[in-house]
């Protein structure tokens, strides 16, 4: 390209300097350094801790903690012992929880987005209203659920027993089998607005002429959803489901705030389980080993999911 | 764009931007490091951070009680104190986090049963004679309380602050209505009274079933009466002994088989819940520490509406059982070793253990002074306080002062919490279930020490 004389040329040259790769990396450096500091360093420290016998005697001076080799991993993976068995149980509970929450949130979000696709007067208001659970601070929202679900003074039992007279038996929602139902419901309540938001954005990107063409071909609303909406939403859904799954699988706030320090056995989700098993015995090495195992498990699951969906996409093309 | 590279001005701009970029990068890199370098303690090296445990009816009430006293301290010494009151469910975890990060308070409260466990972390300042003498030396403190400040044979890493003991609180009106004239003295009488007191919405006893600390204390007290040693001579846990199974089951049975405890109590995780039930007349008895007094006052119950008696003792005692109806309960005060105002921190400890402050604070909290000279105040000569004093002096035993003690509380206390939940949801909890839960608690211990 020929060099042009004059002011424009000078400006261009300055611009060229900007585009030099060295400076670009330099400007990226702060972000990169912070990313390292905030995410990767703690992760590396966690991995290091998992190979140490980091108990109460060493928490003040971690570096003095003796080398444990793979012992922490052996304890966590020994499903015949109380610790390994409860970790495995917690994993199954968490998988069930994550699947139910993702399915529930996606379905609610999809239906709500679909209903609000058509222009109507209260659409803006409803959209705002639907986003409230997502906008509320997690702690405030979940602690309110804790109050609602208490056995003697909770609103839910008051409604079921005293107002509607559906049953005479006040049920425990924060203990026993129903605690799992409670944590799933609260979590769906918290997460579905996100699904709604993303699906709504996705739907707005579907050109209306596709629906018009489908209608001309004689497709009813059901067929339009199946043949136009869902396939067009596919890329959005792929990411949405993955993100929702990872969030709910790692969800700490919902169970921790809902149950306080007393997580029931039936709702023993893995992030709280790891936290509590570290603090119950002050064995942070073992807790870290469990965290690393969780990380590996999620990495494996995510890779599998991405490979599977990529292959399908290729096949579809 | 070859020509662009040779221009002098361009290079200048480039250099300048590079410099700016590098500076920005350096600043951004160093910022978090600088934040890490500040080891808490208020920053300016003079201000002290004080973590107080929850002694009153609410964290807010605690702040109202403590702040004027700390202001007094600031007036006297010129040292500012930043106060944070921390609830019991969080306190131990917060202390552990502070220990591991070094980002802790300067002065803090600990449950005295954790003394030896926290001493083992090496994070607290040992109180040698140089630190103890200005406080009046060990002999100024009550003997049982001072015994719970750390493992035997090592300099203590805390000093007593508030003294507490367990007692039986009974609701006078409900007792009169049920025709019970005197508080029960043994467990047979206790359960019989509880059954008489349980009718309709009213229950014989209220417990804090989801609190691991409360559960663990009762495991210890009932365990003592059943002749249990929680740890053997070498400090190894012995939670699977048949005696402990029976002791834990006896406590759970108040809900499971005696049915004198509302199953809802399995959800209770703050003291105000069971104590509130008692104040409202929904429960007739409480097995609680002396500081329930201040929570009851906040709930609107007058001191003449309830009575206090020693907790029942089994009669006859099971073989090997000891006549113990409380642990040596209380709150200690410790100083973090890495404080940047050690002299100020010790000054605060001296202030808090002074005779005048001991009287003010223990009166406000319904606890017992831990220094002998504070008892001259007539407020500590009431019949109620006398009962707690008597328990502390004669029938209280200290929890084992071993490093694994706090883990006994978390493992066994949590196991009992899960068992209460099972009982409440109607699952059978007999000896095999209790034994299995304790076996699991013992296995968890095995990975800690």
TrEMBL record, chain A:
Major place of residence: membrane
Keywords: Cell membrane, Membrane, Transmembrane, Transmembrane helix, Transport
Keyword Transport attached: yes
Regions annotated as coiled coil: none
Transmembrane spans: 22-51, 91-116, 128-148, 180-201, 236-262, 282-308
Residue ranges occupied by any ABC transmembrane type-1 domain in the UniProt entry: 91-305
Entry membrane topology: Multi-pass membrane protein
Compartments where located: Cell membrane
Domain of life per record: Bacteria
Matching Pfam families: BPD_transp_1
Protein family according to the UniProt entry: Belongs to the binding-protein-dependent transport system permease family.
PANTHER family: ABC TRANSPORTER PERMEASE PROTEIN, INNER MEMBRANE ABC TRANSPORTER PERMEASE PROTEIN YCJO
Name of the protein in its database record: ABC transporter permease
From TrEMBL, chain B:
InterPro entries xref list: Bact_solute-bd_prot1 (IPR050490), SBP (IPR006059)
Pfam families tied to this protein: SBP_bac_1 (PF01547)
Protein's name in the database: Sugar ABC transporter substrate-binding protein
Species the sequence originates in: Plantactinospora mayteni
